Amino acid sequence: MSAAGLILAQAEEAEAPLRFWDNAILDAWEIPFGFWIDEMVSWVVANMETVLDIIKWPFSFLFRNFVNSPEYHPWWELTDMPWILVCAIVLVVATLTRNLKVGIGLAVMLALCGLLGNEFWEETVLTIGLVVVSVVICAMIGIPLGVLCGRVDGVWNAVRPALDAMQVVHAFVYIIPFIFFFGLGPEPATMVTMVFAIPPLIRLTNLGIRQVPADVVEASRAYGASEWRVLLDVQIPLARPAIMTGLNQTLLLSISMIGIAAIMGASGLGLLVFRAVINIDTPLSTSAGLALFIVAVVLDRISQTESGEGANLFTRIYRAWAHRRDPQALLADSSGGPDADAAEGKPAPAGASERTWAIVALIGSVVGIVSVLLPWSLDSGLVSGYSRGADLDLAGLSANGLAAEGGSFFGIGVLAMSLLVLGAAVTTLTRPGRGGRWFGADGALLFAGGGLISAVSYLWIGPSPEAVSHQDGIGMWVALAGGVIAVVGSMLWIRVAPFSPLHPLRINISFSRIVIAVMIVGLLAVAGLSPWFVDARAQSVITPELQAEIDALEKEAREDTNKAGQNAISIATLVAEAQRKNPIAADGFTATGPGLGRLALWLGVVGALFSLPAAGVFGGGERRRWMWSVAVSAIGVGILLASAGWIASLVRASDSNFVSGPGSFLCLLAGFFLFISSRGVLKEFRRSKVYAGDSGLMAQAGNPQTAMATKTN
Asked: Which residues pair with 585 in a beta bridge?
């Protein structure tokens, strides 16, 4: 066949009609949907730039004026605030919306993000800013729209399908239109977050308005209230729980979009997580995940309300302003006065025995406070000698319990626990049962035990093998004596303190507590076998063989100056390789380390044995189980303080490439778990109450048997 005939034959084959069941026929019926959308997007971008700028403006205004502005940096910008100021703001906001205890806890948790490093702190505040901006705009749009939906059925019927679609469509799909119209950056990422998070707020606001009882609404209208008054004074106040729940859910959904926001070019912790996943960076991923978890907990706790809580500061200020013309109306809510005490009862007064042992515990706490001002370490740093080479030889040094070269955070732990024991004793002697929950006999034993174990832990640590000279100062022995006095006083105090349970305890044996105690001992064993410090300093990892190789390279560089640069790079490479592959590590049991693993394991075994009577294995009454439970928690606090003291002391004073090991972290977790293992029993016991006419009971309040006959809070 000629060439022309071959070409014609191939053309005929190419033009052969496709059968209906061939997949290739689908290309002949292709719908140009993507082309249509591309044309519409191009037209919108070209002709509706003003509308897009109006939509983007609220996000840009809030983000660039209060979170992070590239042009200027006012003092109120979140990313330019000192870390302590950001934590203080969280403390104030949480105290106003919740209470002081929650505020302090959240501020401390947020500060932990900063302790992970400055990079994590900067991304943390950016994450907070992104979430807050998103929630603020959600509230500005969602609450009014939800109220309108609750008031007008037609609006709800129109909005409901859109909400259904917004909650069904995958979050990644939201990215597409916002990238087309607004590009990449924090503002489009915040828009996507808002669209994803706003449906629960609209739904719950609508539900709250509709669930207001119809008779209440009709009664307000019957009394002549306008529709605005009905809405503002009746429906919205009664719908407040639903609205607050909607805000809380919106906040949580906003946090869940942090990762997707990072894909769209927004900074924050989501970006660190995204980067860690791509690079398979375990340290970065775990640290970023922890920081993101802390941010989520902080924001959730601030926005979450608890039933039964007292009025917050905003409510009290509002009531004061509302009744400024008739302040006597506020007296109806007062719970003070002798009549209220007669009806509700007063905490049992402290008897002679209880006051005696409280004074003994107080004396021990004062001794502990004085001890941290005395020398704890002489001639070298005890803990800092492991982590800082300069502290191995400090001839003439006399470091007290608060100095980095002295007691460091072990001394700080003794001081903190002593102050708490002092507070518990003073509160019981002056106003028994009127202070904080833990300012009583049980709290005193808890704190005294923690302070004693903290002092024992410091005494347990041996000096670094490389220390030139080290002597223990008198301060640590005084701290040990103060801890023993405080523990003995607290133990005898708790035996006579008039405490009783709010509800009867279960009479059967708590096998779950025993299993948990055994598991904690196992965790402490693993912690002891794990490294308590990892030393990758150059002077530690250079072996004699490596030193010989380095000396040879240096000699060659001196003889031939042309090789000086190349040999310097080779030496740095050898040292870096040794730091990566052969760091020095010491577990919690070895003599070259602090040896705290052995102490923690012994304490864990004692805690597990104490858990047997606390769980009711040997019978006994409720008070007996309570006292053993307090002892178990005290040991848990001590283990927690020992490991935390080691970790924090190394963070405070250490050379580069010297860090605490995972064993200390596992020990900290074990102490925390042992502490909370008794929480179910401890939270049930309160100081007993006596009532008017029970003069005999009040006179015998120091007798625990009498206390069981009195009523409790």
From this structure: 534
Amino acid at 630: V
Residues in the chain, how many?
Answer: 713
Distances (CA, A) of 235 to 139, 205, 229, 240, 241: 17, 10, 9, 9, 11
Summarize pLDDT for 460-517 with one digit per residue, the tens: 998 888 877 888 889 999 999 999 999 999 999 999 988 888 888 777 888 888 999 9
Beginning with the edge strand found earlier in the chain, give each strand of the sheet holding 531-535 in spatial order. 584-587, 531-535, 658-660
Q: At what angle do helices 153-168 and 118-151 cross, to 10 degrees?
A: 150
What is the DSSP track for 673-690? HHHHTTHHHHTTEEE-EE
User: What's the token pair of residue 468?
Assistant: 């030139």
Closest CA to 257 of 246, 268, 242: 268
- Write out pLDDT tens, residues 67-104: 776 666 666 777 778 888 888 888 888 888 777 778 88
> CA-CA distance, 233 to 251, in Å (whole number)?
26
For the beta carbon of residue 223, count every other beta carbon within 10 angstroms.
9
Q: Which value, in Å, is the radius of gyration of the alpha carbons in the chain?
A: 34
Cα–Cα dist 274/252, whole Å: 19
- 398 phi/psi in degrees, rounded to 5: -135, 95
User: Which of these, 665, 669, 664, lies nearest to 593 by C-alpha position?
Assistant: 664
Place of tokens 């003003």: 50
Q: Side chain identity at 110, as an amino acid letter?
A: L
Question: Collapsing DSSP states into helix, strand and coil, what is residue 376?
Answer: strand
Cβ atoms of 642 and 544 within 8 Å: the answer is no
The H or E element that residue 531 is part of is strand 531-535
Beta strands 471-472 and 531-535 are: unpaired
Residue 585 phi/psi, 5-degree rounding, is: -130, 145
Other beta carbons within 10 Å of 141: 15
What is the Cα–Cα distance from 660 to 221, expressed in whole angstroms?
A: 68
Contact 302, 128 (CB under 8 A): no
- Chain centroid offset of residue 627 CA: 29
- Please give the span between the terminal C-alpha atoms of the chain, in angstroms, as a whole number: 108
- Amino acid in the structure at residue 140: M
Q: Report in angstroms the alpha-carbon separations of 516 from 226, 305, 399, 603.
A: 61, 31, 40, 15
Type and span of the H or E element at 471: strand 471-472
Task: Look at phi and psi of residue 672 and say left if phi exceeds 0, alpha if psi is from -120 to 50, else beta.
Answer: alpha
In this structure, which amino acid lies at residue 290?
A: L
Q: What is the DSSP letter of 465?
A: T
DSSP SS3 for 346: strand
Class of domain 57-312: mainly alpha
Nearest to 139 by CA among 203, 58, 57, 198: 198
Q: Are 261 and 270 within 8 A, CB to CB?
A: yes
Entry pTM = 0.73
Cβ atoms of 536 and 657 closer than 8 Å = yes
**Can you name the residues that pair with 346 across neighbouring β-strands?**
690
- Spatial distance between the Cα atoms of 54 and 47, rounded to a whole number of angstroms: 14
Q: Coil, strand, or helix at residue 379?
A: coil
- What contacts 362, CB < 8 A, 6 or more positions away? 421, 422, 425, 426, 429, 489
**H or E stretch at 17:** none
For 323, the enclosing helix (H) or strand (E) is none
> How far is it, in rounded angstroms, from Cα 629 to Cα 335?
33
| Burial class (CB within 10 angstroms; exposed 0-12, middle 13-18, buried 19+) of 181 | middle
**pLDDT for res 527:** 92
Place of tokens 């977790």: 669
Query: Which residues partner with 686 through β-bridges?
Result: 500
> Tens digit of pLDDT for each residue in 268-284?
888 888 888 888 778 88
